[in-house]
Automatic annotation (TrEMBL):
Enzyme Commission number: 2.6.1.92
Catalytic residues as annotated in Swiss-Prot or TrEMBL: K188
Protein species of origin: Chitinilyticum piscinae
InterPro entries: DegT/StrS_aminotransferase, PseC, PyrdxlP-dep_Trfase, PyrdxlP-dep_Trfase_major, PyrdxlP-dep_Trfase_small
Record's keyword terms, sorted: Aminotransferase, Pyridoxal phosphate, Transferase
Family in the record: Belongs to the DegT/DnrJ/EryC1 family.
Name of protein: UDP-4-amino-4, 6-dideoxy-N-acetyl-beta-L-altrosamine transaminase
Keyword Transferase: yes
Domain of life: Bacteria
Alphabetical list of Gene3D superfamilies matching this protein: Aspartate Aminotransferase, domain 1, Type I PLP-dependent aspartate aminotransferase-like (Major domain)
GO biological process: polysaccharide biosynthetic process
Amino acid sequence: MIPYGRQQISEEDIAAVEAVLRSDWLTQGPAVPAFEVALSERTGATHAVAVSSATAALHLACLVAGVGEGDRVWTSPNTFVASANCARYCGACVDFIDIDPDTLNIDIGLLARRLAVAAQSDALPKVVIPVAFAGRSADMQALHSLARQYGFVVIEDASHAVGASYLGQPVASGEYADMTVFSFHPVKIITTAEGGAVLTNRREWADQLQRLRSHGITRDPVLMHSASEGDWYYQMLELGFNYRMTDLQAALGLSQLQRLDVFLERRRQLACRYAAQLAELPLILPSPSEESAWHLYVVQLVDASRRKAIFNELRARGIGVNVHYIPVHLQPYYQAQGFTRGYCPVAEAYYQRAITLPLHAGMTDAQQDEVVSVLKELLQ
Ligand SMILES: *Cc1c(COP(=O)(O)O)cnc(C)c1O
């Protein structure tokens, strides 16, 4: 089976993890801060806080943005469930803003209209979470000006977009988002097995993120509510979690980061090859992008009624296709909160047509040619 996504592990990666295994620290050692510095340098964000997953990163980002019981968080329905669940962990209500059919990202025109209505009834969101679907940022510039106008915090879910850029700046530079979340799951651009990070330019948020990932505990006497009682002493200032990344994971991440540009270049090449080779088929192809990280290559069948049959046939022929995403508001959990079919018609129609083709940094031209030739056979 040619998988839709797969990690690339080198001998250097293995050596980096092995070195940690032979060192004094498996967790809370020097590798995590080194990885965080490298993420900051790469993106231009002043602070990077590495955690155990992007899901944990989204949860903590919502908490430091002040999301709590009764607040509202808005996101895109065309995403993994974690982009919405983070708000629920904080007791907030989630709402979904339908997508733009061209970019498959949150529809900024619709968002502007929904915000104008919400402002009238005092029902504005505290946080909006745009998702950089497939590796390409939403219209963050327009989103940023709406955030200024209506006073919400922007947390970009850039789980797909590690190494991507937007208007010439690295994603996570903080130009348009208050916080940016990365995922390092093995199918993503670089991996730490499980892992994620929050990037921000706000010092006080970074400090709070660091505390919250480790039980809400501080050893800084300045922050303590009473004098330190000795060198063993710490205080728990707020209810935190164990969301720490281990040094094993961070060493892998740091080693992977050295090859990020190689991975991105190969992904872009493969995306260009698909675009050229699939142009004549009855498919809607992703619009070209120089700035996307090309995490996913999603094609849409012009004839949605054939999606399931074509998907099954591709799988039967060893092509590991997938579907991204089942609209989140159609999940039973969110249906139970009152969202019904038809709530986000663009995302729902897109979902009916979508097939994610294999694309990852280790994929060969021959594998891609095989995907293309099977698709041609099925569609011509
Ligand atoms: C993968 C993914 C997540 C969750 O990432 P984990 O690191 O597995 O927790 C969140 N949002 C999006 C858009 C993702 O693709």
